[in-house]
Amino acid sequence: MAETGHRSIGIRVLGAFRRWPGRLSGPGLAGALVLAAVSLGPALTPRPALYQGLVAGICAAIGYGLGVLLAWLLRTVGVPWSRARSRWFRRCLLVATVLVVPLALWWNATWQDDLLALFGEPPAESSHPFVVLVLALVVAVLLLQVGRGLRQVARWVARLLGKAVGRWVPVPLARLVAVALVAWLALVVLDGTLVRGGLAALNDVYAQVDDGTADGVTQPSDPLRSGSPGSMAAWDELGLQGRSFVAGGRPLEQRQQVADLTDRELVDPIRVYAGLRAGDSLDEVAQVVVAELDRTHAWDRSVLAVVTATGTGWIDPSMSDSLELLWGGDTAIASMQYSYLPSWVSFVGDRSTPPAAGKALFEAVYARWSQLPADDRPLLYVAGISLGSYGSQGAFSSVQDVTARTDGALWLGTPGFTDLWGQLTEGRDAGSREVSPVVDGGTTVRFANRPADGTPGDRGLWELGTNWDRPRIVYEQHASDGVVWWSPHLILNEPDRLTEPRGSDVLPSTRWVPLVTFWQTTIDLFVAGTAPAGHGHNYHLEYADGWAAVAPPDGWTQEDTATLREVVGLVASEA
């Protein structure tokens, strides 16, 4: 008897599963097919199958919604649509699906190999089309069910409103109010519960990760490093990335190789850092950094760089190494931690803390630096990569502010929502491209794509001539870096970078598609850092050219920069 009951339930479930596709909108399925297929087309960075399946599923769900909306509009204006036409439409759609899906998956594998060739990499062993297809279907179905659930709630609310105020409010208006109310409640739940609750949970998780120490990292004994015995910044309070930073540095033979170029006497570089636990506020943490600068006598060095870290407090080793190699160690680098969260989390959910931290750190250092005699203080530079670039620029209101209070700036992989970067890009000289803007002829600010190799189609730092005022501001950005080019404006607006001559590492077949390009670039945020050096969000080799332009020692030449780049490249390949 029980066996018969279980079999009956199974039959009903199977029957419901078989009937479920018939309940889906034909125009909706057509929209899903179109947008999913388009989403498999060229993007900025090759992506793993899981990411590609995710973006295809999201786009399929959006396409379904747009197809349903279009069908509703056609019915509203009186376009006839019989059952016979619906059956023929579904048959044609089935044939189209059988043809389009394999072609789209093949297209996806082809453009990824073409892009890898532009990057100088061998083709991938497989694009894993089955994984992409299955994941896209799962994601699309889940999002579709969520949407249907919200629609049912909206209908229920509309019925309640109709019963309550139906005598005074027209039915269409009641439905519109119900949809708006449900949408508002969904956003409130999403932001107040899922997003904020998720951020709090992630913060707890990454706070525990922050207690760890990377393999091979040991507490420094050099008093010129924070975290050493006697330091005001305790080793166990520096955080995972802070400990790696203060314990890092280049081998003596590499430092000597670059120092010989200018006959500089090698000295041990200063690295100061304060972890998030060093104070109850960003200002207090910044004051610990200043105290460390005082303790190490950093003000006696030739160069002081204020570097804003990324989300977890990470500083790209190539950034600090390049500057120390350039000046033979006659440097001090100051930074601090402002979050436990990785940059991608802060990128999405917390954009206020990075510029607040960048401002707190720079203002604290600048206040102390300003007290020193003008002819007896180090050159003051600011720098940052990715979210650190965004945070560093938060300390300044304009280019004039940067040049008035610093001796130069080096910013790499700047996120597209950065105010100062946006002002400069939007106000670029007529005829210059979005991927490599020219600002006032390059007299103060210069943008570069890949200055290390001078690839045709990319702009180098010196292509605008040697008439370059100091202080100098350098932006390094790759045409294939999704971190730089991500923006909500991509949803409905085509970017200039895809209508102008594009960078050398962007496929000619890359096109803007409403909604689709936004989600593709969103996925690029997560995979951009996996690109080889000189592409995507990998700037290992750009630091040599950038620092050599912003902060060159006396007598430094382009040939010297080539040697520095070579040494830094060896470091990057060993890392």
UniProtKB/TrEMBL annotation:
InterPro entries the record matches: Alpha/beta-hydrolase_catalytic (IPR027787), Alpha/beta-hydrolase_N_dom (IPR027788)
Any Pfam family: Abhydrolase_9_N
Keywords tagged on the record: Membrane, Transmembrane, Transmembrane helix
Keyword flag Transmembrane: yes
Domain Alpha/beta-hydrolase catalytic: 270-564
Membrane-spanning segments: 24-44, 50-76, 88-107, 127-147, 168-190
Domain of life: Bacteria
Species per Swiss-Prot/TrEMBL record: Cellulomonas fulva
Domain Alpha/beta-hydrolase N-terminal: 40-249
Protein name per its UniProtKB record: Alpha/beta-hydrolase family protein
